[in-house]
Design a protein that fits this description.
The protein is of the alpha+beta class and 434 residues long. It has helices spanning 14-26, 31-52, 64-68, 71-74, 80-97, 104-125, 142-147, 153-181, 184-206, 217-231, 287-301, 334-346, 363-377, 394-407, 421-433, and strands at 243-248, 256-264, 270-276, 306-310, 315-318, 326-328. It is globular.
Length: 434
Amino acid sequence: MSGSQFSFLEAEFADEFELAAWAERHVLSDPGPAVVYARKCLESAVRWVFRHDRSLPQPYEDKLGAYLNVAAFKALADGRVFGVARKIQRAGNRAVHESRAPSKLEAVEIVSALFQFCFWLAFTYGRSSKPDSSLRFDPHMLVEAGRAGRASLRERQDLEERLEREAEEHEQARQRLAEATRTAEELEAELAELRVEVAAAKRAAESLPVEAHDWSEADTRRYKIDGLLAEAGWRDLVVGRDIEYEVRGMPSGSGVGYVDYVLWGADGSPLAVVEAKKALVDPREGQQQAKLYADCLGAETGQRPVVFYSNGYEHWLWDDTQYPPRRVQGFFTRDELALVIQRRDTRRRLSSVDVGERIVDRHYQQRAIRAIAEHFEADKQRKSLLVMATGAGKTRTVIALVDLLMRAGWVKRVLFLADRTALVNQAVNAFKAH
């Protein structure tokens, strides 16, 4: 395919090139099939790596998930190769099994990730045509590629069948040639030489950061974080107030900093700051920067905001007045953030609120509740496991704990789960009674 950004694969990784180029051509016209083909390309490439790199042990079964979870593969490039591959695998699985087709943006994102993986593959294992280290993926070139790529379903099926047939024929021809011309000793000598070459190539590839070929921080913000914030109700963000907000009092340089995002409350007070990092960068690298921004905003407005740091895929929340940082599913709404801020002042100390003796009157039940309360309050933990024998009053203990947390202003709603309907009904009646 002329003009493909994956052309660096064509000389030595022809099968993977065909699949990647197909995904590239159809990413805008057929996002779902394009994501599926990206996964097929990944699977073909991963199988190639395991066939040719003897440092990687064969997994327990011949499936992509098993290959990706081999410890030696997960350790490649400090885990960055695994992260990219995992993203493509999961997107491909969703495209096959879920009724909702991926959006064009999601498909472009996966093709971009495929480019990163294929670049690593060719740069590490290519022998005669390694890609230039300055090569970068350009999403804007997909517009031209997409115009030439409106193929029919029959075309896609024919291509898939042809690739499978050619791969099988190629493998059979290679095996016949090896059996006819080489002895076992010659093969072993060549393999030993290749292992040395592969080890050297892998060491060289380690020095080239995979994230150099990822979206920039600006693209990550534009294509991922902006959309996630909009889903949480933060729409129509304004540059200068909500984006790139200027703060003063930073500890270095001119003392001026620019916050990636500030989420404001209805009263004009800052509820949260968001520090954005590139997609393949650990978002925790932005923790200290975000804290400094929160310090500046707290001094400026009198209200310390909650801290988020994110790379568009992994999100961390840190309310450093209450708890250590923790991973969260996404960004909070304005009301949720306002409640977090409000609880700093309104919630009472659990140790100052009496346990409901009308609900639990046994000493070990009250001791268990106090132990959990201390675990939450003094140890700053968010999880607790309580093990009690049959007949010891587990349901009543939980009811009293919920009552304590509600009266102290720590929770508004509680989910109670049980593994049988009869136990759910029993718990419902107990909650009503107490």
